[in-house]
Design brief:
Elements lengths: L5 H30 L5 H5 L5 H9 L3 E11 L13 E12 L5 E4 L1 H4 L2 E7 L5 E10 L4 E6 L20 E6 L7 E15 L6 E8 L11 E4 L4 E8 L7 E5 H14 L9 E5 L2 H7 L7 E6 L4 H4 L7 E5 L2 E2 L3 H9 L7 E7 L2 E7 L8 H10 L1 E6 L2 E7 L4 H4 L7 E5 L2 E2 L3 H12 L3 E8 L2 E8 L1
Antiparallel strand pairs: 1-2, 1-4, 2-3, 3-6, 4-5, 5-6, 7-8, 7-10, 8-9, 9-12, 10-11, 11-12, 13-14, 14-15, 15-16, 15-17, 17-18, 19-20, 20-21, 21-22, 21-23, 23-24
Helix pairs in contact: 9-11
Length: 451
Amino acid sequence: MSWGGRPGRRSVAGARSEVYRSCVRRAVAVLLAVLSPAAGSRAESDPRRTPVVEVVERVAPAVVNVAAEAMVREVDPFFGGIFGGRRRRTQSLGSGLIVDAGGLLVTNAHVIEGASRIVVTTLDGRELEAEVLGSDRDSDLAVLKAAGRGLPSRPLGSSGDLRIGETVVAIGNPFGLSHTVTTGVLSARGRAVPSERGELLFTDFLQTDASINPGNSGGPLVNLRGEVIGINTAVIAGANGIGFAIPADRVRRVVDDLLRFGQLQPLWTGMRLRTIDPALERGAGLAVGRGALVEKIHPRSPAAAAGLREGDAVVAAGGQTIASREDVSTALFSVAFGSPLALRVRRGEETLALEVRPERPPPGLGLELLVEAVGLRVGAERGALRVETIAAGSAAEKRGLRAGDLVLAANGQEVATPEELGREVVRAYERGGLLLVVQRGRYAYNLSFAL
């Protein structure tokens, strides 16, 4: 048998031809797959599938409508809000963000304030009962637990590297219109915004021109990566196109405290600050025109341990220039308990670099401050706070307080235990003033005290 000759040469040529045709078929198949409308690249070339669309698809399922029912007492025309009045049922609507598949969600404290029943509604129409795990009015944040499992969720992102002018998306339920989407840009950071009633000043807010209306409160503000950079919380009445959100880094700190302790743990530095303005600069003979003046230092406090003195001017904190007292509060709020915050301080013509470590207030500190500054000692009696003693010559005596009077509220917050009152006193110390509601007989009085 011969392996050579013409038939063998023809067989080799045929095999080569078949290999060539096979390669061509594979190349054509790949090309058709690339050009096919069903290919994955179609989504990338679809002009309707914008980054905003993709963000909404990822985040919207984790946004819920929050309906809170409450019983309120109408104000009595003779005795204000303390006595009498009819009770009626009210309902507030807001938004929330599920941050954990187990039903953990974040919303605004004012959305659920005083609620006796809370129902959240998901994008797919499920109505779930929810309970409050913790709430803090000073930060206007609350953490709820919805009765559900395997829920769509979106974790909190970071607000540390935001860029002014970057596109942002707000998702919520304005006026009860479920899952409304608005877009805009990040207009500013570090805004100081008064609360609706004016009794609180929120600092470090994000400002956006994405439409935020009543009902958006508690919903997420998201960047084009789908990261939650803030929780929408406020609008300024009469100012169209301006909305505000709580930065995600601040939200995370508050949520951690609410989950661990049921309430936000107050920061304690022991220094009282005042914003430096031209009048204060001239009156106190300061060497700087902007910053925060240290008016008072508690002798047993982190501020005293850091070497701060009364009369110092804080001009920078955490590497950021300070223009007001609120700027220092914002910088302190971003620091973990026990971690140092770098300060740049002017003392006369000298510039100092100091570090203060905010701590948790020592047990009983608030009640000690109440005795020292106000001359008031209280005790719990049958579910109420009763004045036990009044120090001679104290501010409490000068205002006419007596043993047996009842303390109902501090700084707008109802208090029923010495611990609750002490916590409000600590919060009020760095603001410099304490407002108490005191009852004697049928009458209640609002009394303010310097701390």
